[in-house]
Amino acid sequence: MTNTGRRGNHRSKKKRITLVLAPIAALGMAVPLMYSAGAATPNEVATDCRTDSDKLENCEFVDVQVKRDSLGPNERVTSVSDNCGSTTAATKSFSGTASVTRTIQLEDGFTVDGSTKLGNSFFEIGVKFATQEINIKRDDTTSSFSFTRSDTVQPDHIAFFMWSHKRTDVSGFLKATYKEEQDGQKVFFSPSEGATAVHVFYPQLLQSGTPDGRLWLRNVKCGTPQANGIINSENSARAEPGFGQGGDNVTDVEVSLSDVSVQ
């Protein structure tokens, strides 16, 4: 009887030991899974696509929505003509150049080189949205036009020409296919599937091939903070408000592109 009791206690100890070891073994299996999770994050996908990483089999832009006829940045495209201190208007000659190029903006603010796999995808998307009515700049070369025009500078004002190009905004997300599996899969998205955080701005062109957009003459009252800021910038590039948004000391007059002598 004594031997029988010992054998029973021995089996009971084995059973208890097995129960203690089971969760430890499970934890050991979970550790490598945690380390491998998230191997391709959205930011890594964007970086790999932007740099044309060797790890990629392919990377493409998937369009989700499109907005035509939006306007690009407000740019000063001529030098500043100074009529400060004068009590009469003056006719001045202005010469300038307006240029456009396709712009690609990832969600982290980076642009993409046109020679990458992704750049080719953007070109193909551009083909999709080009129509007989709306001609767009699909590649990353620059289109421009130069002009010369005489216009009136108001008394005690400075004046210059502003330009904002017309563009088609196609937004969507990146789809990256990796050569080797990560976390059991090869396809990852940035920032996520169905997102609209990646933008491709395709400048719209006239039938002549020159950029389409808004061109306007801006007069700014001398002695105001707006005028002083422009004069102090010494004609360097700086952010400017859009058409009709300059405030009380600013007068904007739009000029039709058909009235501009294009060179």
Automatic annotation (TrEMBL):
<feature type="signal peptide">
    <location>
        <begin position="1"/>
        <end position="39"/>
    </location>
</feature>
<protein>
    <recommendedName>
        <fullName>Secreted protein</fullName>
    </recommendedName>
</protein>
<feature type="region of interest" description="Disordered">
    <location>
        <begin position="230"/>
        <end position="251"/>
    </location>
</feature>
<keyword id="KW-0732">Signal</keyword>
